[in-house]
Amino acid sequence: MHAFVVHRHQLVLKQSPLPKLRNRWALVRVRLAGICNTDVEILRGYHDFRGTPGHEFVGEVAEVRGVSPRERGRWLGRRVVGEINVACSAYGYRPVCAFCRRGLKTHCVRRTVLGIIAHDGAFAEYLTLPLENLHFVPDSIPNEQAVFVEPLAAACEILDQIDIRKFRGAAVLGDGKLAQLVALVLRTQLPNVVMYGKHEKKLALARRCGMKTKRVFGNAKDLKRVRESYELVVEATGSPSGLALAQHLTEPRGTLVLKSTFHGAAPVETWPIVVKEITVVGSRCGPFKKALAFLRSGKIDPTPLITRTFPLAEAEKAIRFAQQNGVMKVLLKA
Question: How far apart are CA 64 and CA 309, in angstroms?
Fold first, then answer.
C-alpha cells in the first residue's frame, strides 16, 4: 500500500506491506482523512513521531481477524470512524493498567495513539484499529461529514466534563477548525456564544452559522483592549499566546477549558488562576456517539469548514497548503 511517513520534518511517500492484524482488529481502507493542527505539530517534532500521521478519517472495513463468521459479515464493507487511543485490552495485556480498570482508556499508560504515538495513522491507503475502537457510520451521514467525527467528539468532550446548565454564555478563543467545532457544539446548549479570533474570513464563517464574533490581535495588546469576561472560556487558539488572553477573559470563579496542543513551551503566569480562583480543565478526546448523534440529527454540519480536498498522493502538498493563512479543513482522498 501507499503510505506517507514523517522524515526530517516532511511527509515522504513509501510503499509498505499491508499491516498485520491482531485478533479482534480490523483493516480499514481509508476513504477520507483530515489534516489537523496536531499533524502539523508532528512535523515540527510533537511526540517525536516517526511513522504515518493522520488520526481523522472515515473508511470501510476491508478485513477482520479473530471473530466468528457472523461477526465478520457484520463488519466487512461497513463504513466506520475510529477512536484513536488504543488501550491495554486491545493488545491483550493482563492485567490491564489502573486507568483502564477505572474506565479511563484514553489515559491508558500503555496506550498507542493513531497517527500520534507509536501507531501508524490515516495518511495511507489502509490503517488498523481494534474493533472496540470502531463506530459504524449511519447511511445518512456522508463521508465529508463523517471525517469530522474525531475532532467533533473532542469538542463534545466539554459537555461531558462540565455542567453546561450552570452557564449563561461562553467565549471560544480561536477561530480555527477545532474552535469552530467547539463553538457549534456549545451553541446547541447555550444561547450566547462569542468567538474571538484574528482572521476576518474565519470569523465570517462563524457568523454565517449564527455566531457572535470579535476580532483580536492575538498578542499582548488584547489584554488592554478586551474588557468583557465570561463564566466559561474555551481556549482553542493552538498558540502559546492564547493562554494569557483566555485567563484574562475568564471571570472570577469561572471555568477555563484548555483545548490547544502544540510543540514547545508556553509562557504561563499562574497568578490570574489563583487570584480569580479559576477552575482550569484540560480537555482532549471525546465521545464519538455524541458526535455522530449531532451529525445524524442535522444540528451540526461541519462541511462549510472544508477548504479543499487533495488526492492522497499529494499529501505533502496538502499539508503545506493547510498551513496557509485563511485555510480551514483540508482533506485527503484515498
Answer: 29
